[in-house]
Design brief:
Distance between the termini: 34 Å
Number of strands: 3
Number of domains: 1
Order of helices and strands: HEEHEH
Strand order of the largest sheet: 1-2-3
Number of helices: 3
Helix content: 25-40%
Amino acid sequence: MNAEHIKTLIAAGLPCTHLELSGDGRHWYATVVSAEFDGKRAIARHQRVYATLGDKMQTGEVHALSIKAYTPAEWAAQAV
């Protein structure tokens, strides 16, 4: 599984205003910004991102994914 494929899966399943993904082919690091995260706690945000990958985590196609999930307002505040 490559970065572009993972990004495509996340973007197809979650409306993102910003999406970054990096990694070494086994361990991935995602920054996801979505209005869908408004009012959700961190665990619910992460579960929402994991859901976009379907069974890719269980089958080992995506071994590890570290997620930073922000609302658009939180992301804008990070830029300051």
